[in-house]
Amino acid sequence: MQARLLSRETGDHSPDDLSKSVNADLLRSFAPAPQHRFNGEIASQTHLEETKERARSVRAHGAGVSGLALEKFDGRILVSGGSEGSIKIWDLDEAPTPNQRHVFRPVSTIARSTGGKKVNGHSHGITHLAFYPFDPDAFLSSSYDKSLKLWATQRSALTADFHLNATIYSHAMSPIADHLLVSCATQHSNVRLVDLKSGSAVQALVAHGGPVLCTSWSPRHEHILASGHADGKVRIWDIRRAGGVIAQLDQEDSLGVLHRFRHATALDQDWSSMPHFRTSAQAHDEAVNGLQWTDDAKYIVSAGLDRKIRVWDAGTGANTLASFGALIQNRHAKTATMVVTSSGLSNNKEILIWPNDQEILLLDLHDGNVITRLRSPGSTNPVGPRGGELGRNRTTTIVWRGAGGGPGQIGTVMGGGNSVGAIYSAHLDGQIRAWMPQIPGPDDIDETEDIDEDEETRRRKRKAVDNAYRSLMGRQITFTGTSR
């Protein structure tokens, strides 16, 4: 580090180069951060006693956490959704420093709706959460109750409610568009578009490929949308066109549309009359349940239940043939959440953050190399036959806290607010876990150590251990026996 600072002072490295180099080291040093815990259960004397007895009893949602969203402006507000239907809002700036012990409590809770009460919340488990792209004071939620809801964050108040008569697996909004369309991936084969301005489902993008499991808007073209389907296809839509589909990603095409254009030109064929893609083209051999554009819109990343992650050239549709090996786990027929960081974050490389069942992988997006593996506490064999389906601590979703909170980066800043960069993961066991770079600070904290003890209790324990040690070492020891 001193050598890097010297290089910057002498002009050999720019501030951006130094920042990227430091970020590369920080990314490799990510580790569990058990000093930060999320306790969403109602405090009681019995509960406090149980918490002191066993730190792992702390839960954000008792029935399991099924959704997470982090606002991208300050990276401060985290929203979590429970498998039972409740939604909780957390303030990440409650913790003064990354190394300081802190138990987060929800600043607000939206209760599950039940038949006997007039509650605006969801009646079934949360499937997806996402903040409004232009305002941290609004977020969207979807649920197995077949509804999409818009909430005011500060007041935890419902502002709009849409019933689609179909299970909504996930939803997305364009980060740049003037329109207020929400694309919904549902159990039906059509992509549903909901207009927040008019308050109705205004359009259906008609496809015939089974359920839609994921959608993602282009970060450069406000009318371009990608969707992943149960038939293994990734369809690219221009929502202004009557026909809709303008392309399908083809795993067998590593050259792209430009090559086909040049080939047609060389053969003196009429390019305009030729189909620009094969109707039978498939991106994956099984259902596609994950889609993500890179911030610069140059690449599309797709994930399928065939345990493959593919990276596509968004300009040509070509399969870049990036290989991530056999580590990838993806076997649950639901929307898979992945994070792609900006290329400006670390050495001009995008980092793919992928949640396996019981570990989180940080991978180089283009060569597939593993940067680091973050294993959930208690997981001894995350890729073995006993992992995942039977594991109560299985990861359900992740979010990244970078510059401004979201995956998008401004410049080369690693973290936002009081954070040096962090990953938050949601789990079926009800916990929200934090993962952070190792930086100079207090000694590592044992996962089972009581984090709610006051300083006086910890001082008494240290004194008792010290007294026992001194007593043992100060005891006079004599040896008896017959000398020879």
Task: Write up this protein.
This protein is mostly beta strands. The chain contains 5 helices and 29 strands. It has helices at 2-9, 15-28, 45-53, 257-266, 455-474; strands spanning 30-32, 36-38, 65-70, 77-82, 87-91, 102-104, 108-110, 126-131, 138-143, 147-152, 157-163, 168-173, 181-186, 191-195, 200-205, 212-217, 224-229, 234-238, 245-248, 288-293, 299-304, 309-313, 339-340, 351-355, 359-364, 370-375, 395-401, 422-427, 432-437. Strands 1-29-28-27 form a 4-stranded antiparallel sheet. It has a 4-stranded antiparallel sheet with strand order 3-4-5-7, with no helix packed on it. 41% of the residues are buried.
Task: Provide keyphrases for this structure.
484 residues; mainly beta; four-stranded antiparallel sheet; 29 strands; WD40_repeat_dom_sf; DNA excision repair protein ERCC-8; WD40_PAC1; DNA damage
Task: Walk me through the topology.
Elements: H1 2-9, H2 15-28, E1 30-32, E2 36-38, H3 45-53, E3 65-70, E4 77-82, E5 87-91, E6 102-104, E7 108-110, E8 126-131, E9 138-143, E10 147-152, E11 157-163, E12 168-173, E13 181-186, E14 191-195, E15 200-205, E16 212-217, E17 224-229, E18 234-238, E19 245-248, H4 257-266, E20 288-293, E21 299-304, E22 309-313, E23 339-340, E24 351-355, E25 359-364, E26 370-375, E27 395-401, E28 422-427, E29 432-437, H5 455-474
Parallel strand pairs: 2-6
Antiparallel strand pairs: 1-29, 3-4, 4-5, 5-7, 8-9, 9-10, 10-11, 12-13, 13-14, 14-15, 16-17, 17-18, 18-19, 20-21, 21-22, 23-24, 24-25, 25-26, 27-28, 28-29
